[in-house]
Design goal:
With 532 residues, the chain is of the alpha/beta class. It has helices at 3-18, 27-35, 42-62, 76-89, 103-109, 125-158, 162-173, 193-205, 234-250, 282-288, 331-344, 359-372, 388-402, 424-434, 436-444, 454-470, 476-490, 497-500, 503-514; strands spanning 68-73, 97-101, 182-185, 210-214, 230-231, 257-262, 269-270, 292-294, 307-309, 312-316, 324-325, 349-352, 378-381, 446-451. It has an eight-stranded parallel beta sheet with strand order 12-6-4-3-2-1-14-13. It has a three-stranded mixed beta sheet with strand order 5-7-11, with no helix packed on it. Strands 8-10-9 form a three-stranded antiparallel beta sheet, with no helix packed on it.
């Protein structure tokens, strides 16, 4: 017996027990509504999606071609459209395809202060609010899709089309939800470990099964692809990792996923010197990367901070801001150390923020990490902050030059130029971009690939194109040809925007509640009927 059949039976029993007051209640209608609301709470979602991610992580360990992907979201509608599109284009399945919640987009697009830089200045509660919003829209996508199947089932019953009834019922019983894991950015925790714990609980209660936290100072946090990043000693960062784990465990999400992100590759500063309890511990290694000078005790000035290194008195170089700097060229070594220690502290996945998409660079660091933790896995930011075209054309230029091929017709500094678009170099570079995710997952241990800000850029591009045409000579044809006609021919669900907003589901409910007295919106005069 299918779940919906079981629910019809169970609700039928409750109706009989309730007697006359429930005479107008239809058990099948109630069972349909229950099916359209599979997940009752955010914790239901977090448990369900954590299981998916854990299974996907195990599958990747067995076969690195089974990597996962996601696209960044800044609104529930965007996330909903992504998963509707995934199901439409990939045989109704969502396997290994997630959503990413970008702190950058929350700051830039969701703050009451208006657009803000990615510096943790936005309202911290807006992050959990976006998690909840994304899942509200994904759950509505389920309800809308099932509602269409229920209506189709009713039509098949009315025409006595038994084959159609069997087929549609099978689709209902085996419906694939649009609800998928969200990798959610908690920045640097928005405060101390207690603040991190409180915010994590709010995000988990909204449905987040995977939280990503970075090792920057919370009140000095910068976007990973900007300058001025300041890291914290490992003891501070690991306290926040434990705060996330406790939040998951308190709420019953025992298999919640923590992503530990290191920004050390591009972070040359620290706010504090680590505490050293014994030689070669975390603090000692962290301090070993500091840029110091050996001094005599008599050379100490008022207010100097100095410490003992191998029996010598050293003074770390301190900037006017009060921050200390690391030695040049130590970024990758610090990333490796950060990753190894993060796994030791309970991180499930790692994130190394790099300045360019270069497989060799990522692999070199991950080889060292995996020498200690063989199953260490990366989440990697396929960032729009990278100039992918220029980076890969320059990488291909260098590869061709090293192989002795003639590159005299190319200007390495100007490879972004459109004049190179049809060249052999650019064709090869584009092929490397196309296979970057598969290649890096195989060679460098990347389990999850995400693009942080794709819909920010696609919204800007499409709006620019529409404005140029609509306010120009094309007029209304700019919208019809550039948007609506493409929606219709590509089968984009939101061409029926009334349906997407829940109008048809509302009609179903009106009929459930009021029977033949229902005043429904989806009649013959509804202009959405023009779209078939």
């Amino acid at each position: 017996m299918s779940n919906i059949s079981q629910d019809i039976e169970t609700i039928g029993v409750a109706k009989r027990n309730a007697g006359t007051p429930w005479d107008a209640i239809n058990p099948e209608s109630a069972a349909r509504m229950r099916a359209q609301n599979k997940f009752k709470t955010g914790l239901d979602i977090a448990k369900y999606t954590a299981d998916i991610m854990r299974a996907d992580m195990a599958a990747y360990d067995a076969d690195s071609s089974q990597y996962t992907q996601s696209l960044g979201c800044w609104h529930g509608f965007i996330g909903q459209q992504k998963m509707i599109s995934v199901k439409k284009h990939f045989n109704g399945q969502t396997d290994r395809r997630y959503l990413y919640l970008s702190g950058w987009m929350v700051a830039a697009l969701r703050s009451d202060f208006g657009p803000l830089p990615d510096q943790s200045m936005h309202e911290k509660t807006s992050v959990a609010g976006l998690v909840e919003e994304l899942y509200t829209f994904l759950r509505q996508a389920d309800a809308r899709e099932l509602g269409g199947l229920f209506r189709a089932l009713d039509e098949a019953r009315e025409t006595n089309d038994f084959n159609a009834q069997i087929s549609i019922q099978d689709q209902i019983d085996n419906h694939v939800t649009h609800v998928v894991p969200i990798v959610a950015d908690i920045d640097a925790g928005f405060g101390n470990a207690e603040a991190t714990y409180l915010m994590a609980k709010q995000m988990i209660e909204a449905g987040a099964c995977c939280l990503q936290i970075e090792n920057q100072v919370a009140d000095e946090k910068q976007c990973g692809h900007q300058d001025g990043k300041v890291t914290v000693p490992h003891a501070d960062f690991h306290a926040k990792l434990r705060a996330l784990r406790y939040a998951f465990l308190e709420l019953g999400i025992d298999n919640g996923i923590i992503v530990a992100r290191t920004d050390s590759q591009g972070a040359g500063l620290t706010k504090e010197i680590a505490v050293v309890k014994e030689p070669s511990d975390q603090g000692d290694v962290y301090n070993s990367f500091l840029d110091v000078e050996e001094i005599d005790v008599t050379a100490m000035a008022e207010g100097d901070v100095c410490f003992n290194r191998d029996g010598k008195l050293v003074r770390p170089k301190r900037l006017p801001s009060g921050l200390y700097q690391f030695r040049q060229g130590t970024g990758e070594a610090r990333c490796v150390f950060d990753c190894i220690e993060a796994v030791n502290a309970g991180a499930d996945l790692l994130w190394i923020e790099t300045e360019k998409p270069h497989i060799g660079q990522i692999k070199a660091m991950m080889d060292e990490v995996r020498a200690v933790h063989p199953n260490a896995k990366l989440v990697y930011n396929n960032s729009p902050s990278f100039n992918w075209t220029l980076n890969f054309r320059q990488q291909m230029f260098d590869t061709m030059a090293e192989a002795g091929e003639d590159v005299s017709s190319y200007d390495r500094a100007d490879l972004m130029s459109a004049e190179y678009d049809e060249t052999e170099l650019s064709t090869r570079a584009d092929d490397k971009i196309r296979t970057f995710q598969a290649d890096s997952s195989r060679e460098a241990g990347i389990f999850h690939h995400l693009i942080t800000l794709p819909t920010y850029h696609t919204a800007a591009l499409s709006t620019d194109n529409l404005a140029k045409e609509y306010f120009g000579e094309a007029g209304m044809l700019g919208y019809v040809e550039g948007v609506q006609r493409k929606e219709i021919r590509q089968g984009i669900a939101c061409v029926k925007h009334q349906n997407m907003s829940g109008s048809d589901m509302g009609d179903d409910h009106k009929e459930y509640f009021a029977g033949e007295n229902a005043l429904k919106a989806g009649g013959a005069l509804n202009t959405s009927n023009q779209f078939g």
